[in-house]
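Sat 14:20. Reprocessing the chain from the morning session after the first attempt stalled halfway. Input below, unchanged.
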Amino acid sequence: MAMNNGDRISSHIHYSPKYFYSLGYKFEYWKDKDYVNHFLQGNYLVERFNNIDSQANIYLKTGIGTSTYLEGDKDYNKSYFIAGSADWETQKLYSNYEVRYSDIENIEDFILHSGALGFAPYVGNYGDLHTWALYAFQYNEDKNKNKFTHGPKLRFFKNTNLIEVGINNRKDLILNLIIRY
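Finished this time. Tokens:
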């Protein structure tokens, strides 16, 4: 998984021994403060709700690792995060929300809220290319300015692969890619 938005560039490589949990490595580069995180991350599916016309999921995510500035002080600092997320979708509607608390020793700690609402302009069959029009938001409680960003993005999903392209209100490019094996 690779993600790029106005605040950070990240990648996440993980393995799922069972459908309800995964373990992996997460890298993040935070642009505004010019530091990187290296996390050992765990994801856990708390609950899945399968209904005739919809599916919903609740996840718990956590990571521990180290962080360092790219310039100046090169000390490695302890860091961790904990997050909860939920999503709900039908073949035509989609919503998700995540809240994350991060504590990056000697750099910052923050609470980040993010989510999206959207719809599918058509319903495809299994294996078809599926398209979603989404409106995403992000609110970072730590920031003094530009705390709230939002904007449209298009999601293209085929089999187990996904790409998202969009732009937010600060004119930052949103580009996300997920490839599953």
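The domain at 2-178 is CATH 2.40.160.40 (Porin).
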